[in-house]
Amino acid sequence: MDEKKTARYYELLERMIDEMSVTDGYDRTKIVDVVKGICELFRLTKAETEFYRSEAFKKRGEVERISDYDNGKSGRLAMQRRMVSKTGSSVISSVYMEEGDELTPDEEAKVDILLRTMVSFIARNRLQNAIEQLGFHDEEGYPNMRSFMRFLDKLGLEGKMREYTACCFNLRRFGLVNQQFGREVGDLVIKKYFNILKGIIGEKGHVIRMGGDNFAAIFKSELTDQVIEVFKGVAVTYEPGTQKRVLISSAAGLYKITDDFGEQSPRSIMDMIFPTMHTAKSETNGTIVYYDEQMVAMRDHTMHVREIFPKAIKNGEFHVFYQPKVDVTWGKLVGAEALCRWFHDGRIVPPMEFIPVLEQNTDICKLDYLMLEMVCKDLRRWLDMGRRVVRVSVNLSRKNLTDVDLLDNIIEIVDRYEIPHEFIEIELTETTTDVAFRDLKRVVTGLEEVGIATAVDDFGIGYSSLTLLQDIPWKVLKIDRSFLPADEEKVVSKNHMMFKHVVSMAREIGLECVTEGVETKKQVMILRKNHCHVAQGFFFDKPMPVEEFEGRIDKPMYDLSHLSEEWRFKADEGPAREKV
Ligand code: C2E
Ligand code: MG
Ligand code: MG
To answer: Which of 482, 466, 451, 462 lies closest to 398, judged by CA?
Structure first.
């Protein structure tokens, strides 16, 4: 080979090494260009390099062509070099020449070097890909958590975290898709949904699968709206060639990375978005939830309460407080509501801090039974002492309604303490679904049949429906305090009207009426004017410990002499009475 040709050869070899040394994937067109130069230099008609992932791939003819060049003139195989790895993957590089033409020994040595270089570079590069594939992808080919952490670390190093939003998401009711269409279709649908999101995020972030139908993503915050659209739901075709589609949506917990994130390790983002997704999954705050500290505090509180509840029950930390119900005409104690108080760590925890937590599972049922039992115990003691006893109402969470033994259990407790049924009342709140409505009707009817009174609690908040009053044989209607007009409201206000009509309707269908949250003299007057005879509220008494309430039983009359002359006059008139 002359000097010029030799110089060209070294130039091409150098270029080939350069192009193949690029770490993040090489540029195919540049390599083909080098290969073309080589072919021209050595009179080769064709050059090809094939990669087979394994023996099985080779048998099936599944080839990956790395650098083809063909000048169109056919030829014979002039040289071939191959490399087979321990895992069975192989690279084969071949060059062809026109029939009759031959490489000189010098040329042959140079082409040999070129082919060997090519083969070893490809083998190494593919190996790198295989490592990447194995280490940063799961068995189904989705990028995995390790790749997510690598992305976060990179953003952290570049100081770009603040431009991003991170999230975890879970496909909603995906089990149903699997059930309905089978696992294979399920997998395909997941892949498509994943790819839709990946298509939106592209180079501006990273999406991974954490396992099952749980995923995580980090993306430039400017994409948030588009990403949320995907979470809200997209139709995914599940049968190639048809228009058959299924709507896929996600429950997602998001965290827009703020300046405050500061010094924290990028990896701590996971600690924020993962639990947020769980909140989104529970759907208590919607299915798209943003991380905020209050929510975290709530979650910690929930976990704490759940954890210590069994011990608290065992230690007798729950107590009954009684709040009197008073006849507003005569100022006489006519009943009481049992309200739960938790004595814990030297303070009294109000129900709002633990009842909603216990209502998330069936723990509340245990507490409700305990309350009923403690009330029965008190009633038994009063009866044994010959005290005058009033009807006591016990709150029962809706959670109890699905329990088929509920009725029997209530009656068993009441009868075990030999409490005449007329002294027990069960307060239940309204329900929203048809199924729950049926359960509610069954339980209330059953209780009424055995002479245990029932009350609709908190009427007026939520979905108060007239069907609820019409179709279920309640004894008492408890009007929520939100219905009660405030002192400054005019008599013609909407609240006044509503209150008036709710009371008169309840009376007409034969319900006893109790108004909750009566705090002022004026409100007492409103009750009386509208013929709602029973009040429960701070005007008379706050919920009180049992010893204090016993004092009330023994002295059941309230002193109403401080009420106005007008009041006393009307009270003396004595309106039509209801038995409470
Ligand atoms: P509820 O059944 O509607 O009970 C009435 C609530 O109103 C009580 O709150 C009572 O203290 C409060 N209240 C009474 N009069 C007034 C007033 O004049 N003004 C104001 N602002 N509030 C008044 P509490 O004791 O904090 O209980 C809250 C809720 O927790 C109860 O609402 C009930 O839904 C639930 N709860 C309490 N004890 C139990 C229980 O043993 N089991 C179940 N399942 N729920 C319970
Ligand atoms: Mg109640
Ligand atoms: Mg209430």
So the answer is: 462
